[in-house]
Predict the 3D structure of the following.
Amino acid sequence: MARLHLFDLDGTLLHGTSAPMEISRQLGLEAETVLLEQAISAGRIGPPEYATRAHGLWADLTEAHVSAAFEGAPWLTRIRDVWAEITAQGDYCAVVSLSPSFFVERLTAWGAHAAYGSRFPALPFTEPMDPGGVLSAAAKVEIADMLCERFGVTRGDCIAYGDSSSDTALFGVVPVSVAVNADHVLSGLATHSYKGRDLWEAYELVRHAR
């Protein structure tokens, strides 16, 4: 039976940062985005408000900024090696993140079979943000179920990788999970835990797990 590996992005594949932070860095808006990150971490705002405020900050954002953010971000090492190995084993890998889909979807070029993020208007922004397109922790489970159907597997065949509260719902419904540089709450829910900057080492923990 094939397996489906589900990867978070912010703080997981990206070490110590998030896609919005890397995007904002290109625009000189790090301080404003730190405040947004603190607000959502403390529960003062939810994902829709976070995304709406980020959209407002990024009025001057272009595809060139996004490309620079993606290419310059502090990724874990050997991501493409892990995904190539997963594919060679007849398994599947997907990225599911609350970050903007225009950033997340670039990971299909690295070997992810699917990549889902919150829907933002096309760049450069001329349309308002639709909060209905913003993902949540619960949406990660819904997307996982959709991907299970697409790839012919079940929740019981899934392995989740994440680092924070947005991954708790998904960790609660799959049998194998890896807390990657995670907070203590998620580490307590995970079947495995990894600290470091090499995705292959995290993958090795569950490479043969069933």
Q: What stands out?
A: Residues 149 and 187 are 28 Å apart (CA to CA). The first strand starts at residue 4 and ends at 7.
